[in-house]
């Protein structure tokens, strides 16, 4: 890479992430083509627990759980972004303290004006609470089905709020 190309790639990377610096509810960061973190916003610090000083220059695999499946999915995600311009997945990610979070991850392939790859832009939202709520609904439905399936000598009637209000008069 020539000196001008290197300067162009840094300028493109900077313009792609400068708007996101103050955002706190969304992690926005850029990586080099070989996945070394090059920018880090406040949202990334809030979600992952690393300061910019701690994480910039480190490989993005530090944000992955130790599970080999997640590491393979990470490589597929990057390949898909390279081939299609972007990729969107939901996957487990790892915080500085070792805890995991369920994340919605958008990966955008960044290119210089000549079309040469200069890295990736990552947009990450912590969806852990949403996933917990979804799992709670599934568990509630499972328990309800066990209850209903266990009833054989009685009838179970289900009334909605609107149906019940008709009988209350």
TrEMBL record:
Residues 28-85 form the PAS domain. It comes from the Bacteria. Coiled coil: none annotated. Keywords: Kinase, Transferase. Pfam families: PAS_9. Residues 87-139 form the PAC domain. GO terms for molecular function: kinase activity. The keyword Isomerase does not apply. The keyword Cell membrane does not apply. InterPro entries: PAS (IPR000014), PAS-assoc_C (IPR000700), PAS-like_dom_sf (IPR035965). NCBIfam families: sensory_box (TIGR00229). This is PAS/PAC sensor signal transduction histidine kinase. It comes from Caballeronia arvi. The lineage of its organism: Bacteria, Pseudomonadati, Pseudomonadota, Betaproteobacteria, Burkholderiales.
């Amino acid at each position: 890479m020539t000196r001008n190309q290197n300067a162009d790639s840094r300028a493109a990377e900077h313009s792609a992430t400068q708007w996101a610096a103050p955002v706190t509810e969304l992690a926005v960061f850029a990586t080099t083509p070989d996945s070394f973190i090059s920018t880090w916003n406040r949202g990334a610090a809030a979600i992952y627990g690393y300061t910019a000083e701690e994480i910039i220059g480190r490989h993005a695999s530090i944000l992955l759980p130790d599970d080999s499946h997640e590491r393979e999915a990470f490589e597929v995600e990057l390949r898909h972004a390279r081939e299609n311009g972007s990729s969107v997945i939901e996957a487990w990610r790892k915080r500085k303290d070792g805890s995991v979070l369920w994340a919605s991850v958008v990966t955008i392939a960044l290119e210089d004006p000549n079309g040469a790859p200069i890295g990736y832009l990552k947009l990450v939202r912590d969806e852990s609470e949403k996933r917990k709520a979804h799992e709670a609904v599934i568990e509630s439905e499972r328990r309800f089905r066990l209850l209903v399936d266990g009833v054989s000598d009685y009838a179970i009637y289900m009334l909605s709020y609107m149906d019940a209000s008709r009988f209350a008069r």
